[in-house]
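Reopening closed ticket. The problem is back. First fold of the pair:
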Amino acid sequence: MDEALEYYEKSLNYAANDDLKSSAFHNIGNVYFDKKDFQKSIDAYKRSLKYNPDNPDTRKNLLMAKEMLQQQKNQQQNQQQNQKQDQNQNQEKIKTSTRSRIRKILMIKTKIKIRMTKILHRKMTNRIIKNPIKIMKITRKEINL
């Protein structure tokens, strides 16, 4: 394809009349169309029509290239929208996952507090049973402070 494009571009330098120039630009447009470079294809077809405005094939190809360019742009927009949606979904998953982890951590902290409270309660109960008078003195001192 690149060789054909090079050939048609060189032929423009040797084109003796408008029909040959129109034909060269038409063919350049076809090469770009096949490469799916629709903007360059459109430009080449327009230049072809400057030299031969009555060419129905070039007009038809120009319309097809414009339609293909529009489809290409729509596809790109759809891809961008899909990427944004995917990013948003991923961010939401991360947020949900983070919230879940935080809940688990808070539950673990609560369980630890409950266990610590039970342990302290047991220790205090054991102290009271072993030496209730000493505990009462400590409690009175704390109250007086």
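Second fold of the pair, where the issue appears:
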Amino acid sequence: MSQRDAAVSQRPAPRPAGRVRRLALVALPAVALLLAGCGPAGSGALPSAALTPTAGQAGSSPALPLAAQDSSPGPTSASAGPAASSAGPAASSASPTMTPPPTRSVTPSPATASRAVTASHAVASSALPAGPALPGGTPTTEPPTSKTGPLAGKLIVIDPGHNGTAAEHLSEINQLVNAGGFMKACQTTGTATNAGYPEHAFTWDTALRLAALLRSQGATVVLTRSNDDGWGPCIDQRGLTAARNHATLLISLHGDGAPGSAHGFHVIWPGPVPGYTEASSAPSGRAAVALRDAMVRSGFTPATYVNGGTGLNERTDLGTLNRAGTPALMVECGNMRNAGDAAMMSSPSGRQHLATGLAAGVLAAVAALR
């Protein structure tokens, strides 16, 4: 017997007509109340409460913690460092699109034509849901302190990598978010110097110094996080902060955790990712070259361990860059496991010198986008 036939054979006998009439009389007031809550007559609209997502809908399956948030090495990167955290469940239940696109390491051609950035963002923002807004992840906008500087009218988003209490919220930071057509952990804990100075503190302090310098040159500055004692935002939200603010440029600050013999800074830009970076990849590449050259002029050494010592690296696996929808760069400001780099990154004077070099780099990068 088929399942349909079995269902028919088990159908209950009809109720007496009198009982049906009584049930109808009881149900009519309830139906009237339901219709009253459905909006204007004939609209068929649901009550607003029915459209509100429940808590937890933005979350997803856990992923493995990574050593360096969203700057964790891609398939061909040589900058892998020791993991800052080994906790967290395996990501065996992740989406089938978990594998990121292949990574390339090439020097961009200034002649490469760019396309409309807004079109790229329109596709990117609709592909997969964005991650949740998280504690410490509220962007802050700081107005310029000069209206006549070389960056007047420009909006720069500074992303200080990681956050102070991420290690205490492993279940939250292991949520998977859309990193550009594939899923990746929301956030990671970052690395540290051998003496224990953490990457999140370095990026936060350097970002504040850089913001002050850029504002003095006329730029409006948006920081992707508002403090160093939270655990967000997720990597997609960091990038989307640039998209939502129509940024001239996003610069994401990090410190690397490579082997101790390696030293120097390098600049990463997003390679082509269909639906996400077709419009932003080429201008980001030009900006990367300009920022690298400006930092070299400021006395900084390109990384000895990335892409033949060029200090340039194109990657397609970084959610912050992929989701920006605007020209976007990530700067690994130095190797925190190297004694010389760590000494500079740990000292206030070293971070001020670095911020000055980055400010010169941003100015050059913005000029390269014209």
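Update: turned out to be a display glitch only; the data is intact. Residues 348-368 form the longest helix (21 residues). The CA atoms of residues 90 and 262 lie 30 Å apart. Please close again.
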